[in-house]
Amino acid sequence: MSNILIISGHPDLTTSNANKAILDAVRARFGDNVKIRELDKLRVNGKFDVSAEQKALVEADVIVLQFPVMWYSISSLLKQWIDDVFEYGFAYGENGTALQGKKLLISATAGAIEDVYRTMLPRDVSATLTEFENTAAFTGMPLEEPLYSYGTTGDPDNPAVARAIGEDHGKRLIERLEALGV
């Protein structure tokens, strides 16, 4: 069985319904075969323990970046993590082969409903995720088809809707991971 590493880029997972439900579903299905790095808990005084993060990446076969789309991009927390951890000599450049061959799966949630993207915006969520094509190519990671869900902000008076979307997303993520042979 492959080692799955999920990088949770939600800036405050305690306030999340959908992303938390996704992680709960994956934990329930894969148990000890999944490691989840909750970045909102791992950044101390504005910094990550880069060597610990790199060690987790080296031990993984499949890397999932799980995050909410924020202003049509990744969260600043996840962006900082990538900037800090994907160092020259580790992820790219001379001797930077640590990530080569590891499967990369992008799993994102968008707060707005799909209709907003269709009627008010020039691009849908998938366009937001294209930046990872370059990241994957540069680091030698095969990029899997991204997985995303809309409408995860939901009604603040009814968080069950966002949680249900997260639970559905979690099932689809599990199916995708199982299809990858994990």
UniProtKB/TrEMBL annotation:
Q: Per its UniProt record, what InterPro entries does this chain match? A: Flavodoxin_fold, Flavoprotein-like_sf, KefG/KefF
UniProt keyword Transmembrane present: no
Q: Which Gene3D superfamilies match?
A: 3.40.50.360
Keyword Oxidoreductase part of the UniProt annotation: yes
Keywords attached to this Swiss-Prot or TrEMBL record, sorted alphabetically, are: Oxidoreductase
A single Pfam family it belongs to is Flavodoxin_2
Q: Name one GO molecular function term.
A: FMN binding
Location of the Flavodoxin-like fold domain: 3-164
In which domain of life is the source organism classified? Bacteria
Report the protein name in the record.
Potassium transporter
Starting at the broadest rank, the lineage of the source organism is: Bacteria, Bacillati, Actinomycetota, Actinomycetes, Micrococcales
